[in-house]
């Protein structure tokens, strides 16, 4: 059942986040889609953790990447200038 698998994965994800936090990390999460970088629809969750004692400085400097904007399949298959 699809809903059941979402619940299990959600529980595992939350366990990972809580475990990192218990180890002294401030955790940021974000789902990014590869579509912004290449012509593929691939959503992935990324985690970035900063030690609590360094989080104010490091976390203030960290920014999630902004996608430059898709592309076409030829961008992936052919090197620039090869056509």
Q: What does the model show?
A:
The chain is α+β, with helices and mostly antiparallel strands. 40% of the residues lie in helices and 22% in strands. It has a two-stranded antiparallel ribbon. The protein is flat, with a radius of gyration of 18 Å. The termini are far apart. The relative contact order is 0.16.
Query: Could you tell me how far the N terminus lies from the C terminus, measured between alpha carbons in angstroms?
Result: 47 Å
- Tally of extended strands? 2
Nearest-integer average pLDDT: 79
Strand content: 15-25%
Shape: flat
- Roughly what percent helix? 25-40%
SSE-based structural type: alpha+beta
Major beta sheet summary: 2 strands, antiparallel
N-to-C order of helices and strands: HEEHH
Radius of gyration: 18 Å
Q: Low-confidence parts, pLDDT < 50 over ≥5 residues?
A: none
List keywords for this structure.
single chain; 83 residues; alpha+beta; 3 helices; 40% helix
Chain-wise SSE layout:
Elements (H helix, E strand, L loop, with lengths): L1 H21 L2 E9 L9 E9 L3 H7 L11 H5 L6
Antiparallel strand pairs: 1-2
Summarize the structure.
This protein has 83 residues and is an alpha+beta fold.
């Amino acid at each position: 059942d699809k809903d059941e698998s979402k619940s299990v994965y959600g529980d595992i994800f939350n366990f990972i986040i809580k475990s990192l936090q218990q180890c002294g990390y401030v955790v940021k999460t974000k789902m990014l889609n590869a579509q912004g970088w290449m012509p593929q629809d691939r959503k992935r969750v990324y985690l970035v953790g900063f030690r609590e004692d360094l989080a104010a400085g490091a976390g203030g400097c960290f920014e999630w990447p902004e996608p430059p904007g898709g592309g076409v399949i030829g961008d992936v298959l052919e090197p620039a200038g090869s056509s």
